[in-house]
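User: Structure tokens for both sequences below?

Assistant:
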Amino acid sequence: QVQLVESGGDLVQTGGSLRLSCAASGSYFNINSMRWYRQAPGKEREWVATVTSGGNTNYADSVKGRFTISIDNAKRTVYLQMNSLKPEDTAVYYCYTRNALSTYWGQGTQVTVSS
């Protein structure tokens, strides 16, 4: 079992920055990657970014060049640095991972970008 706890969501103005954190606990071994997803009101949940335990990253086109995902394996924490935020980035942001047994989601953290 893996537990994921996100933090760092807030209300920010257009052009501002936020850093989200996702702390993992429990059976962390055999986890090769972690992801961030987001879900805006009335929309489906969408993938934002992925980081592997080796530090390789991948981003959705909508956030490429503005968001940076990183991982601290010693702290079992993944971060999402979000710069140049836009109103369309407003969403609940979720951390996700999986191992051979199951998939795991955090409870989400709200990011609101005002225009």
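Moving on to the next sequence.
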Amino acid sequence: QVQLVESGGGSVQTGGSLRLSCGASGRTLTGSAMGWFRQPPGKEREFVAAISWNGGNIYYADSVKGRFTISRDNAKNTVDLQMNSLKPEDTAVYYCAEDYGFSGREYLRTRVNEYYYWGHGTQVTVSS
């Protein structure tokens, strides 16, 4: 059974940094585009960042551009999200997701229903 597991969440003050990591058990993530999404309290899940199968194509939501960095290490079967200059509005449960069967070589997808496998999420809380 495919399972994505996020780690690295926590509580920080405004301006702080966190690094989230996503690993997989049961399959290799190589070949699939990967994405990070988040769900703020009382709101719908939203796109944060995506990366193509080999890291050659990356796309960010405008709200995190310049502050967050997505990366992947296919040898370790992991995808990370480095979050800097965090703001209270970044508070959310963060999810890792696999765009199964889609490489992202030419473009990356941003809709929740386009991603097939999901982790259970990790909480990020930014206090002012």
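User: Anything stand out in the second?

Assistant: The radius of gyration is 13 Å.
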